[in-house]
Amino acid sequence: MNFRITESVKSLFNFKKAPLLGRACLAVRQGVGVRLFIIFLLVFISCGKKEEVKLQTFSAEAFAFSLPEGWEVNATIRVKGFMQNKVKDTFIAKLEYSVDLVKPNGESIKALAKDIADEENTEEFSDLPIEVQINLDAKYLPGKYKLIFNIKDELSGQQIISEKELELIKQ
């Protein structure tokens, strides 16, 4: 198969910005081979793509302390895979979150706690903790509850929902 690059195909590429691609096109033009060009083009394209990172949660923990006036619930979850902006020498991450509570009878209380984790650091973040403390009054009876973490990466728009069971035990 003889393959020659026409002027219209060459005009698709800016050889000043991509001299290696220009050389590959020239190699095809000189008859080195279409296969070599296709392999080079695939490698060139795959190296230029940024790997998309998916928002993930891990290490969720929740526990409650019995108090005379009710309960103190402490919960934490770690988040990774969020977008970070670099401004000068500072990495910025912004996670909006809310925590819902599902009672043993299935009734759900939305946004019992909510906040924005707006973090800055001189080094890139590997993950961030989200920590909440919720006070429940005495009307919450002992039993198995569920905390639902609703987390949104404000910079990428990605969202994730994670659940953690919690048992209220009177001591």
Describe the protein.
The protein has 171 residues and is of the alpha+beta class. The chain is built from three helices and eight strands. It has helices at residues 7-10, 19-29, 34-48, and strands at 56-67, 70-80, 85-87, 90-102, 108-121, 128-137, 143-153, 159-168. Strands 3, 4, 5, 7 and 8 form a five-stranded antiparallel β-sheet that branches. A hairpin with a 5-residue loop joins strand 7 and strand 8. Helix 2 (19-29) packs antiparallel against helix 3.
Instruction: Give helix and strand order, one letter per element, not per position.
Output: HHHEEEEEEEE
Please bin the fraction of helical residues: 10-25%
The average pLDDT is: 84
Strand content: over 45%
- Our measurement of the CA-to-CA distance between the termini, rounded to an integer number of angstroms, reads 82 Å
The helix tally amounts to 3
Radius of gyration: 27 Å
Number of strands: 8
Largest sheet: 5 strands, antiparallel
Tell the overall outline. elongated
Structural class of the secondary elements? Answer: alpha+beta
